[in-house]
Amino acid sequence: MITPGPKDLWFLPLGGCGEIGMNLNLYGHNGAWLMVDCGITFERDSHRVRPRVQTPDPQFIVEHRDALAGIVLTHAHEDHIGAMPLLWERFPVPVYTTPFTAEVLRRKAAGRGGKVPSPLIECLPGESQRIGPFDVEWLPITHSTPDTCALHIRCDAGKLLHTADWKIDKAPQVGPGFDHALFAAAGASQLDAVICDSTNAVVPGHSVSESVVRDGLGKTVAGCEGRVVVACFASNIARIHSLIDVADKTGRYLTLLGRSLQTMHSAALTVGLLERSPRLIEAGHLGYLPREDILIVATGSQGEHGAALQRLANGSHPQLELEPGDTVILSSRIIPGNEEPVERLIKRFRDQGITVIDSDGAVETVHASGHPCADELASMYQWARPRLAVPVHGEQRHMKANAKIARGNGAKMALTGENGDLFYLAPEPGLRRKVARVGRLEQDEEGRLSPVAPPDVPRA
Description:
It is a single chain. The chain is built from 12 helices and 24 strands. By secondary structure, the protein is α/β, with parallel strands linked by helices. The chain has 2 domains: 9-204 and 370-451, Ribonuclease Z/Hydroxyacylglutathione hydrolase-like (Metallo-beta-lactamase, Chain A); 210-358, 3-Layer(aba) Sandwich (Rossmann fold), CATH 3.40.50.10710. The chain has an 8-stranded mixed sheet. A 7-stranded mixed sheet has the order 9-10-11-12-13-19-20. Strands 15-16-14-17-18 form a 5-stranded parallel sheet, with helices on both faces. The radius of gyration is 22 Å and the shape is globular. Residues 456-460 have low confidence and may be disordered.
């Protein structure tokens, strides 16, 4: 057994370090562990129509479950909460998260036949909670889904900041704008470490505000004559809010196509992040409205099989058939690995005379990343002033770029590793390679999870 002592503060990632997605992080102190996030990833297989759902292999913490004090979920994205309904019974401890994430988790569990964690304890941004030997403070931070929080974690051995996914956005449309004073205050506590998102570390400059996207979508939709379909990630509640505003200003009615969009929208209404709009109509009304009066938000921006956008491209959607002169706007980025299905989707639309505007080719800004670019990372390290930076949530090139930025902006040391490595955060920084068994579990058609063979081991 690997057990942290009373003077130790450890970090052990089981997923999301050296890769983007499937996050599962452990912090250790005085014989106890705190889990932060428990997500999934989707792996495409040329022999299967639908992508496969995979989770981190949690065997290490299953073996240490008697020492697990609790689980904290930072936000509602699948790569941070998607595995929770599938894995929670293996380590049944209290789960803490913000209201929107809790509501999404309940709905995801019900839809997939998984388990809703119990107790599921809701914590408001700005609150603190004692979880075993850890004091956890929820610091509101801007991202592409609301109620995202960084975590200021303190124990007798030291202090750290876990950023979760984030960006600096002063006008995110839903929720409060980024407040750098929160992170400067955390830095003033003399942080031993910052564990930080690396997704856009290789991208220079600053990410775009959601308010700029709102304005860009407004100008783009105003210039379209027929029906307009905007494809975006279902969890981007701010994008839905922006499109409700665009519908109002352009005199169009808005419809949500796709179960996940409707689930997220309903969750946001339930917790008060959105108000019900008179511009929002049911899909059944689309058939008798003039084409120029219709604005649609659809799932399927990654070319997913069976999603609303693919059914529109194939002419198989039960409520709507697009025609030449209609426009599809891809208000998203292509996730690496999805290039082929997205290209096929675009070709199907264009072959039918339907205009496609993607985020790279658009005249106006129609999408913004939810992750910090290089200048934002530099600012965070200047505010937080950690002794040690540990980049996560990225491939090796992203994490190395993040580490370089950290060292140039106040961090005395930066360590990069991968899943299964043990990072010593206090009393002295250090790294021990391959301490914990890591891997992936895959969900089959019956909902069962089984280990995924390593790449060099053929499947049975």
